[in-house]
Amino acid sequence: MTLEGALECAEGMRRGGWLPHEEVHDWDTTELADAAGRPLAEISRVVAARVRGLADRAAAAQTRPMARVPDCGVRIGCDAVGPQPQPAPQTVTTPRDRSDLWSAVVADVATGALERGEALVYGRLFMGPKGRPIYDAAWTNDHVRPEAKTVAYGSIRDLLAAGGWATKLDLKAAFRSVAVHPDDRPLLGVMVDGVSLRYARLPFGLASSPQLFCGMLRRTLATVQVPRGCAVVDYVDDIAVAAPTAAACAALTADVIERLLDDGWRVACAKTFARPTPTLLFLGFEVDVADKTVALRGAKVAKVKAWLADAMAGGPSWRVALTKALGMAAWAAPALRGAGFVAPELYRALTTGHVGDEAREAAGMLADMFDHAATPTRLDPPDAAIAVVTDAGDTAWCAALYEDGAITACHRGPLPHGTDGWSSTAREALAVVEAVRAFGGGLDVGRVGVQVHTDSQALTHIMTRGRTRSPEVAKALSGLMDLIRQGLRITASWCRRSEGHQPLVDAGTARALRWHPSRGMLCWLAARWPADIHVGAGSRDVAMAPRYTADIDDETRSEVIRQAAGGWSGWVGTDGAVCVTGLRVLCHPRWGGERAVVRQWRDAAEIVVVTRRTAHVDSMFTGWPGHVEVHVPPPRLCWWVAEDGESVRTIRVPDLVVVRWSARSASQVKAEEEVRLKLMSLLNPGPMPVVAPGRPSGKRPRLDQARRGVPSDGLAREAIRRSWEKDAAVGAGGGAPAAMASTLAGPRQDAWWPGRGERQRQWVDAHAVIRGAWGEPPLAEQPRVPEPSPSTRVGVAAPQAGAGGHGADAWQRAPLLVDVIRSVARSAPMMDSSVGETIMAKVDKASDRVTTARRRARSASTRSELAARSMLAYLEANGASGAAATPDALDLVAMAYADDRLEGVVGARKVAVDTVAGEASSLAAGLRAVGFSVGPYLGIRTASYLVARGAAQRRSSSNALPLLLRWLLTVEPRSGSRDHAIWASRVTQSGFMLRPGVAGALRRGHMTPWGWGYVLSWPSRHKSSRADVCQRAGTPQAVWMVTACGHPAVKAVLDVYISRAESDGCLLWPEATPRATLEWLRRVRPVSPEEVPRLTAHGFRLGTDLELDELKAPKDEVNVLGWWARENVAGRSTQAYYSSVHLGRLLMITSRLGGSVTHHPSPGVHTGTPAATVDWEKEWEAVSRRLPAQPPNIRQAALTAAAAAGAKAGDEDGVSE
């Protein structure tokens, strides 16, 4: 039979009412029942009968129409398609593939997927690896809009997050179930052996088919009621259902299948397995939803390893083999840990055509990863995680480990040699590797993960996706490959450089001067005299003690570490800013300055100094009590590491010596401690007996008897004499009541000796001496004042004795979590109340003034307050009002709150992950502002949960390339061309500092000539002013945004295009679409290597903003011109700006544009030529005389333009207004 005859037969079948159908299959089974090795769940008879009925219904011919697909079909998302180059592609079959290809074509004609008709664009048809026809629509795909090609698919992680039971189903002829609009069918032609056909339904191979199909399918799935804790995951035509129990899974599966059949979809009978099972084959992976693991099948692993071996062998088809292996690696990403970090070297080999040693090493690592992927790999979040904060500078890295909101360890070190030319992202990756090495030793990688907080958005994106295209980043992260293959799970989140603990680690990235003995010498010293702190070590690799310092060359950053609350291990500060009381110190100061350096460490227990033998060595510890020793190290170890400019040298120093000073011996320390204790007892005797005015009663105490064992030096005698005369005067005056004296007894004792161990016993023994001298009552009889609890230091009022029946025990009550969060909701900072009521009243008054000014500017509560109120309501609703105010409790509550917010339990509806992340970040900032230390996103668990749910990090600054008006005026295209219209729209955007969307939608009615420029009026539903920028009659109402531009080039462009527009409702430049603008911009604006290659239309707006900032233009004018508030000044809201700025001032500042040259070397970093100094007030005096007396009459033209824009939007949406 010829193809024409077969097609006539297929058309006759369709005219005769034939419909596709299948054989009935048993759905009450599983795909991996034997491999799972577990008993299958027993489902109820009712559900089983329902599943069998649905199987019979799915096998029958489908007569229901596609309810979710428009009757006229879908548009494929193409712009205007030009003529196709001739000759058009044709499909010519061979005897080898003719039977399969003709059968597929005839089947598509019989089902209605292919039809006869006019075709303007043709594509080639060939058979794919799975026996399905694939349509190569190259010319049509080139004209499909980029936004129509993207689609978000479901993932295995979504399936594992649901429950322990799952089922699987598949759709039949998925794309070919969605009809194409008749107007787009001519773009989908195919010529098979001379027969012309065209697709009437979505073909497999059209770029927009996945998005269109998934959109229609998800409309059906959205109507299924999915219980909480269950999930329906779709990946194109593969659908999986998961639930915590087998019964819930079976019932939900039946609901999904029934809804699909009702809406006209065909369920593949042979590929559907409706019996709940803990293991299933989904997307080619063996998935265990109960254990949260995924594994590759052995056949696929062997195939990939064979491809890698062929590629490394260098045969004629090595490129094909390597491409297949990399494609398989991209598909198997869920089961391959770290594959995305080794792939860049292999992609580089494909690009260069050369397989080097690094590529071979990467191929070996990739093969090992595939071997490991054959065993189950856990994909669920770790049971616990350590949190680290990292940062990297030009020469050094720094990382801090924090637990419960406080830093417990900090380390720093120099970046490896040869990385100075790496990108900042690669250096940040090195900091992450060093952090894991420093803090991750001994981790149970199968149970404990690592949560990284960094100020690099690029690295956060790379760590979240698990892949990178940068060979430098891949090389930096190669140090973690072994741990990642073993199961280490690393997540990353972004934090601003000025928030949390980021300033501390940023301070540690400053360059530290290297000046220390050789590694061998340091090890020899550590073995002989172990140290508690290594002063001047500079880095973790050099330090020979658990604590060390670094002498960094940045005074500003040094001050940051000095002001930080210490107490952690590792890097604890700069050389002169640490406490060494009672510690063993190892140091190696600059030669010649040893005595001045060690002078600040007189409280140390031991000091070991490594220096050269000079005359001042013998006098280094002159006058110090204790013991001094001088040692000569072995000659083979006498080497020194010194930094000379940009290089580091290792020099031999044969005259090195080690000077060791140790404090007093143990017996000497004990004797001197007893003497000091007795002396302090005499100088601070405690309560005195109250006597009448006049001479003290009784004999004067015999101080010589009380001072038994006290050194009789003149200083001690003088101190005791003054103390006695002072106390005698108080007693003689009678001005010290007994209550006051007894009140001072307890705190004075606690202030000197806090009451720990033997020191408390020594205090009691010494006090017995004083009792014999003064005749005081026993110490036990003295009334004691309870020490205030720590809660008074954070502003939580402690109940008084007898209040609420608690008494003195109430002093020990810790603050509650609701108290802390309530202080955020009320904007009441928790401050130290020990400064007195007067100071606190003044502080509260000042805080109220600031809060009132801010609220008057915002007219609304802050995001922190709103988040705090929502959290308070959540705590009360869930019975957690009594939770203690600890970071761990807050983390647990925040994680539960985030989950309920995402699932719609809290609030009127479900919210996006970004919304919850913003609330958590705002509340964390509020808590830090009131004195409660908390990490980003309220804790480690909450941060890990939000990252796992896909919380996107917000950008701190735009990384678009600034495009200045000065450059734009030098690239004017030919007048009358399409490029000239695009150029004119960008000139207008730069002059008015417009958003890209507004610049492309301007109409003639939006512009009104006034003065020497133009006034632009634009309707805004989101930002409006109560008054208007002119404050005169005849100006627009509050719903209009008004701005002006007086640059001569902008006026000349608008004069030309306004004269061409036929009416006020006509677009000035309809050719300036976003895609056309970006294409033109890429042609005319080359990007240099030192710039960030991100060209967007937003760069014109950013460039004007930067240039006005260089010109020091008043902020009020810039805010009105750009329709934003760049500075949140108290009492000056955006509405206030619009009420105070005259249109003439906007003409004035925009006239100065076009004189700056600005560069953009990195995201958020802008450098430019110094701007000329402008006296704006003096210039305004001259400009105001040139302004017209009457304001611009822009109301009627603006309303006409708005009506035209509304009618156009109504036509596009299919509705009329």
**What structural class results from the helix and strand content?**
alpha+beta
Percent of sequence in beta strands: 5-15%
Individual helix count: 42
Shape: globular
Give start-end ranges of low-pLDDT stretches. Answer: 35-39, 686-721, 726-813, 828-833, 951-957, 1021-1039, 1124-1139, 1161-1166, 1207-1217
- Whole-number mean pLDDT: 76
Distance between the termini: 58 Å
**Proportion in helices:** 25-40%
As an assembly, this protein is single chain
Strand element count:
33
Structural Rg: 39 Å
Biggest sheet strand order reads 18-17-14-15-16-22-21-20-23-24-28-25
Structural features, described:
Helix 21 crosses helix 25. The chain contains 42 helices and 33 strands. It is globular. The C terminus is likely disordered. Helix 20 links the parallel strand 23 and strand 24. The strands form seven sheets. Strands 18-17-14-15-16-22-21-20-23-24-28-25 form a twelve-stranded mixed beta sheet, sandwiched between helices. The chain has a five-stranded mixed beta sheet with strand order 1-6-5-2-3. A four-stranded antiparallel beta sheet has the order 7-8-4-9. The protein is α+β, with helices and mostly antiparallel strands.
What would the keywords be for this entry?
single chain, 1217 residues, twelve-stranded mixed β-sheet, five-stranded mixed β-sheet, 42 helices, 33 strands, disordered C terminus
